[in-house]
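Nucleic acid-binding protein: structure tokens wanted.
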Amino acid sequence: MGAWGYLPFENDDALDWLEELEAGGADVIRQALAKAGDRYVEAPDGAIALAAAEVTAASQGNPLGDLPENVTDWVTAHRLEITAEDVEMAVEAVDRVAGEKSELAQLWDDADEPEWRESLDDLTERLRAGLR
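Answer:
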């Protein structure tokens, strides 16, 4: 896992995905969230789904404190494309990435890094705030 931190954009998979995000609209977010489907979630797919969930939260006015500039630019240009259904999909994706059928969850649990799960709780809360 090419990660240097526990936040959504502190890994190679999420940063590589940002190129795809910059080239597209809300469909890129939806496709990334769908990567955390009902099957076993591989670590790269989980990392991308969490990054997409973070962009979704930012689009609802609930961003993580310090986002990459290209994410901020994307949110400014596309935030109105994100729907309540997208936010619900993001909450579900975070839950699946945090669950038992997730390689990323296993890796972070094995690393004994509780901050990762705390960051997911924070992300989920910020997403749910966008639904209120």
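The radius of gyration is 13 Å. Residues 36 and 93 are 5 Å apart (CA to CA).

Cheers.
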